[in-house]
Amino acid sequence: MREWIIEVLNHFGYGGVVFLIALENLFPPIPSEVILTFGGFMTTCTDMRLWLVIAAATAGSLIGALVLYGAGRLLGADRVTRLLDGRVGKILHFKRADVESAMDWFEQRGYSAVFLCRCVPIVRSLISIPAGMAKMPLIPFFLLTAAGSFVWNTVLVYLGALAGNSWEKIAACFGTYSDVFFIVLLTLVPVVSLWWLRRRKKNA
Fold first, then answer.
1. Which one, of 71, 98, 96, 76, lies nearest residue 85 by Cα?
2. Residue 53 in contact with residue 17, Cβ under 8 Å?
3. More confidently predicted of 152 and 101
4. Of 3, 6, 64, 141, which cross-links 22 as Cys (Cβ 3.0–4.6 Å)?
5. Angle ∠(146,182,130) on CA atoms, nearest 5
């Protein structure tokens, strides 16, 4: 997949960044850290500009996020979870537990979750679904998603440019961070859910 990402960016430049980041939001197995750090590296050896790569990545993030937000808003919680339990979930590599954890983030932190989760692996894409299901107003969702995505994209693109030919080491470090976070998330979701259910039963 890394070779394909590099080929797309080499051929299509900024358009490739928009396309790949939008696709990464809809299909989490595509590694944003590779797209963004290589994009940053390209600013050191081509005529691509740092701020335009960041802008293109942010535009791609917004496109992908708006698709998921629209799906959450149109389908509602029951249909979304049914879809994720079936073939659609397998194709997109989305799981019910991932969406439930994103919903927990949204319920606990409200609008700030949309901003904060844009810097959290896996949840950064999925937070758009509960925001849509909760019918969060579009303008605040758009602005918070843009701001959070801008932070994530700026950090990775800048580090890729700073690392130069060593951009792959930065991508690998963030890839490890994503893997570790995923393992922690899988461990915490059932524990937190059990604690929440017991607390709810106790207060009932």
1. 96
2. yes
3. 152
4. 64
5. 45
Higher pLDDT, 175 or 103: 103
Residue 115's alpha-carbon distances to 47, 79, 141, 149, 161, in angstroms, are 31, 25, 9, 8, 25
Six-digit token string for 199: 């607390």
Short-list 151, 160, 128, CA closest to 41: 160
The 10 Å Cβ neighbour count of residue 143 is: 13
Count of Cβ atoms closer than 10 Å to residue 99 Cβ: 24
123 within 8 A of 98, measured Cβ to Cβ: yes
Query: What residue spans of 134-166 are helical by DSSP H?
Result: 138-163
**What digits encode the pLDDT tens for the residues 135-150?**
889 999 999 999 999 9
